Amino acid sequence: MGLKSYIAKRIVYSFILLLTVIAVNFIIFIAMPGDPGAFLMSAWSKESPERRKEHEQALNEMWGLHEPWYIRLIKYYRNLLTWNFGIEIAGRRLIANVMAEKIPYTVLLLGLSDVVSIILGVYIGIIVIKKRGSAFDSAAVISSLIMGSLPTFWIGLVLLWFFSRSGVLGWFPGSGAFPRDWALTGWPKVYTVNPSYTPATLNYNTTLSLQGSLDLLGGFLSHLALPFFTLTIFTVGGWILLTRAAMLETITEDYIVTAKAKGLSETEILYKHALKNASLPIITSAALSFGFILSGAIITETVFSYPGIGGWIWDAISIRDYPVLMAVFYLISICVIVANIIADLLYGVIDPRIKYG
Fold first, then answer.
1. Which of 164, 263, 299, 357 is a Cys-bridge partner for 160, taking CB atoms 3.0 to 4.6 Å apart?
2. Do 356 and 1 meet the contact criterion of CB atoms below 8 Å apart?
3. Is the pLDDT of residue 356 over 60?
4. pTM to 2 decimals?
5. Angle between helical axes of 322-350 and 309-319 (0-180°, round to 10)
């Protein structure tokens, strides 16, 4: 089977898997305890039983809860597959619009943190392998275990206490994704458009502002710093341990012994031979990490009041906003499925022994 046939086959299987995930997602939210209608009805707690019943009936009709489950499932399939996620229960905003606002923040935070953690973790893991059995090896393993065991909210609070504007050093802002005064004064202007009129045409001259670009970039990066460091500190240890474990299995293979007998340097052996063959579990973990990127960092985003998907999920859980949770979980499922397809394709690129079929 060729590569094109394999990709087509995987797409078909992935679509069937997506349909199954949608059904499971629907069943979970139907079967889980807690009634969002009861939460919404709390606003009419002092009304008479007749009025409460009228409001309850109106809510059930509004959200389609009065229909049989199979009708709701069909509509659920139709809405998700057409990206019609509905509206929030509490905010009454279109879920797709809110999601479009929050996704860039989460992708920036988790994407940057994942990339830096993977690069640092793999690099330090190779250094650990070069010095295996030494005190550096033991210190790296112990430090990685400690960093991965610390609660993210505790790491965040420590960073806030030490580095935030109200903390010891006062280097970084402690909350939000951009300076609050931008809401009043407007965002820094990266460019200005100056229209110029001629007798026959209207032209626009665009002038870039270096200072405005630096102010905009600095505003976002300064607010990104503390949540970024929190996630990186928490995750980099896992990549160090994974790289170390994968490399330990590889460096005992016969082809490594042969490479040493040929007189190759240890650095060349580790990077060109051992790492390439040990990279499959690293690729799998990296694909899953990026696949779950839209799940957000619920605790970290909540600690730093970062306006990403994670904080939105926490708010939705708090008020039982099931439409939001259903939409976010659906999007996460798509990302994970796509990430697995990409990982499978990368397997064949890195290891020629793997055939598509």
1. 164
2. yes
3. no
4. 0.79
5. 140
